[in-house]
Amino acid sequence: MNEQKKKVVIVGGGITGLSAAFYMQKAAQEQNLPIEVMLIEATKRLGGKIQTVRRDGFVIERGPDSFLIRKKSMEEFAKDLGIDGELVRNATGQAHILVNGRLQPIPPGSVMGIPTKMSPFLGSGLFSLTGKLRAAGDLFLPRSRVEGDQSLGQFFRRRFGREIVDNLIEPLLSGVYAGDIDHMSLQSTYPQFYQVEKKHRSLILGMKRTTPKQVPQKDGHGASKEGAFHSFRNGLESIVEAAEQQLFPGTVKKGVRIENISKQGNQTILELNNGEVVLADAVIVTTGHMAAHQLFASHGLLKGLKEIQTTSVATVALAFPADAVVQDKEGTGFLVSRSNDYSITACTWVHRKWPTTTPEGKILLRAFVGRIGEEAIVDLPDGEIEKIVLEDLGKVLTIKGKPDFSVITRFKEDRPQYRVGHRQRVDEARAELKQEFPNVKLAGASYDGVGLPDCVNQGKAAVEEVLQELFHN
């Protein structure tokens, strides 16, 4: 029976690869399909960017800290793994933008920076009167005539002018990608805004009409009790641990990489650095795009993936006694406008946003450094990065003494940039593979979304595609 099984190899053990392996195994069990799954991970651990540090009662995320609830795939993954009871929502509060050295509250009614309530926007200290009047021009401007892809910067500056984009929209939209909105692809990052303009003409009117009205419950301080994000009580790595535990013994190969890839009839030959040769009936490559390019470089394929740029970022978690930090602003953190002379790009007041992460009597701050064009700080020693971050935070908060400890994590050349034309580059890469290696699929953060739910969706979609080709064609 083993000889008749179809061998499916997943390359890369991040959240995309893990979800693909789990759902391939699940489909084989539920549909009684003859499938053998193998997951190959070059490092000694699974999870990719998901890394949780559990120390002295703190739960500290090195990489992503949560995922959007409205994107259901991560919550469904947790439910399928039997750990949905461990999900926790973020506590919400006022978020701020650091502009001209001052923390300014994001106006209520802003949807990704687009005002849907005019009174808070007009009263905001984020913009000058001239900037507010220019932004109001969106109410009267015609639809854009730009055909095809365009940059976020081009799109939003046309509708709102420079000031609202620089002081509000850019910090909100560029943070996920650590990117430059004047190069980021509208089509590949936030296509919903293009659709809103196309349908409603004005973004302000369109977002006002399409954004669901919410009546959040309030706590005693006037802040919403629950927010729009989920994590796990013991950290995001809980989902990695649960998925690995449920994969069949022998499925996962860690610390092993592919040295060469070739074809033999309808199968793909994978030569591993441990000397093993694997004949695969289907391969799902979930690594970053540069690793995928290198895998097929000897065949002259996927050269276009080299055009997908990356940037380096670092996260800096700082644990303090509660009396060491004085915060005179309510809320859960702030983003930094590029107009400021700061090295940090954002700071989360983790003990407020995720109360379950922090022991009683302690404070946990998490700052971010590095983005496109400003990556040099990521290469500095830990002590220098910590010093720079503390100096920046000291301009905004009153900090007494040094932290109890810090956790600094670097992601070098790791954040893919979805620049204008990204969709076309990805489509061309997949078309090349379909021609030369038709049973190899590309999935992961480099292609169709960097958020955790986006990655899970890609893993599941690749599984469906493979199943269709193996058993229904």
Automatic annotation (TrEMBL):
<keyword id="KW-0350">Heme biosynthesis</keyword>
<protein>
    <recommendedName>
        <fullName>Coproporphyrinogen III oxidase</fullName>
        <ecNumber>1.3.3.15</ecNumber>
    </recommendedName>
</protein>
<keyword id="KW-0285">Flavoprotein</keyword>
<dbReference type="InterPro" id="IPR002937">
    <property type="entry name" value="Amino_oxidase"/>
</dbReference>
<comment type="function">
    <text>Involved in coproporphyrin-dependent heme b biosynthesis. Catalyzes the oxidation of coproporphyrinogen III to coproporphyrin III.</text>
</comment>
<dbReference type="InterPro" id="IPR050464">
    <property type="entry name" value="Zeta_carotene_desat/Oxidored"/>
</dbReference>
<comment type="similarity">
    <text>Belongs to the protoporphyrinogen/coproporphyrinogen oxidase family. Coproporphyrinogen III oxidase subfamily.</text>
</comment>
<keyword id="KW-0963">Cytoplasm</keyword>
<feature type="domain" description="Amine oxidase">
    <location>
        <begin position="15"/>
        <end position="467"/>
    </location>
</feature>
<dbReference type="GO" id="GO:0004729">
    <property type="term" value="F:oxygen-dependent protoporphyrinogen oxidase activity"/>
</dbReference>
<dbReference type="Pfam" id="PF01593">
    <property type="entry name" value="Amino_oxidase"/>
</dbReference>
<dbReference type="GO" id="GO:0006783">
    <property type="term" value="P:heme biosynthetic process"/>
</dbReference>
<dbReference type="InterPro" id="IPR036188">
    <property type="entry name" value="FAD/NAD-bd_sf"/>
</dbReference>
<dbReference type="GO" id="GO:0005737">
    <property type="term" value="C:cytoplasm"/>
</dbReference>
<keyword id="KW-0274">FAD</keyword>
<keyword id="KW-0560">Oxidoreductase</keyword>
<dbReference type="InterPro" id="IPR004572">
    <property type="entry name" value="Protoporphyrinogen_oxidase"/>
</dbReference>
<comment type="pathway">
    <text>Porphyrin-containing compound metabolism; protoheme biosynthesis.</text>
</comment>
